[in-house]
Input
Amino acid sequence: MPMLSRAESIEVMSVDGAGGMVPGPSSAEIAQSLAAYGFKVTNQHVKPANRSAGQTIVDTAVSIGADLIVKGAYTQSRLRQMIFGGMTRHLILNSPLPVLFSY
Output
């Protein structure tokens, strides 16, 4: 929270079809919780078109002028990660922006 308090704004994003993840709060619920702490926060649900979920995150973050991506890491099973890859791996290897992972 102390690092987030320095943000001018926070965009919470979910990606359509990014299934197989550990159950947790929706992006709307996360945005609502952050707003309750007084953060300037917006929420969007993005469709990946023909991109991977990881590339969708990168493209969206770059397009909105983000300077940091914050993401939970390894929310898929190891088997699914090995077969299909995953957002965490994609961000580690391809993000032009700094990424803070919560594990």
